[in-house]
Amino acid sequence: MNFSNFKSGFWQKQYNYKSFQPTKINNTWIWDDPKINTLLEEATRQLGELNAFSYILPDVDLFIRMHVVKEANTSSRIEGTQTNMDEALMKKEDITPSKRDDWQEVRNYIDALNYSIEELSTFPLSNRLIRKTHQILLSDVRGNHKMPGEFRTSQNWIGGSSIADAIFVPPHPSEVSDLMGNLEQFLHNEEINVPHLIKIALAHYQFETIHPFLDGNGRIGRLLITLYLVSAGLLKKPSLYLSDFFEKHKSSYYDALTHVRNTSDIIHWIKFFLSAVVETAKKGKDTFSKILELKDEIHKLIITFGKKAESAQKLINHLYSNPFVNLSDVMGAVNLSKQSANQLIKDFLDKEILVEVTGNQRNRIFYFKRYYILFIV
Q1: Rounded CA gap, 263 and 266, in Å?
Q2: Model's pTM, two decimal places?
Q3: Which of 114, 169, 231, 303 has the smallest number of CB atoms closer than 10 Å to its CB?
């Protein structure tokens, strides 16, 4: 199908409202707009250069965890949670009680993402995996009564106080299973010649239009992008997350999706999506480059620790995974006594590797500031 001839779907009369019935997407797709070719080439190049860091950066999994936390926090913020990234990295007991519900939603996203990435090593990206990931996402949080892990069996809507004044009404629940089956077939159809980035751009639009769950569709739909890129082999590690770009351009993101449904202009969405990949991959490369520079600088500092160098290196590795620590964390991560852990923390403070954030004399929390800020700029 040519993008120029694409028809997004039609409005279907239900009992007392109309729902949107999207066109199925399991087809070969072509286009005439040369701008798509240019953007696709640039996005593929930038993504490949980003992926290279997964091969050249030692212990890359330590740093990937921070990417995961950032994605979980940002994607959740798009949906209205108020947790900041520093809070997402802390333990539940260190979070203000009034913000623990939001904190739990972010932690669930982290668990859901880690689970699904691990499952991809043995199972294909499928509706079964998507449903299980959704179940983890909504476990013991505010949406836990909204059929976690199951496609919806009732009508949902987007915007408005009721279905009567909704901004958008997704397809009737009786259509969800068939539409999601078509989406799954599209992701795995090797008989159609569609570049992976075009395929996942279409899949993300389609998923958000189907809105197959009663809650969590935005987060699962954005997670689907990363899962597909990993499963298709474009990424060795889950290092690209578009939620940061989507949050910064939130209105444009929602408008681009709505524009397709209203006008059938899928080309506008494809260009927006590819631009998001280009910009996000560039930013990811810059972050990894700065990590390498910082890692080299810190390694030179660790050498000056003499007999404590081994313990210092263990602590640094822990901080790369989570830059926020307390005394108990250091004792556990490095296997030190309380006295030795306190001394190591003092050494890290003296060398300005760690910074104390609470201002307290007891129950102090420290963070690896120079590393942490690489992920929040």
Answers
A1: 8
A2: 0.93
A3: 303
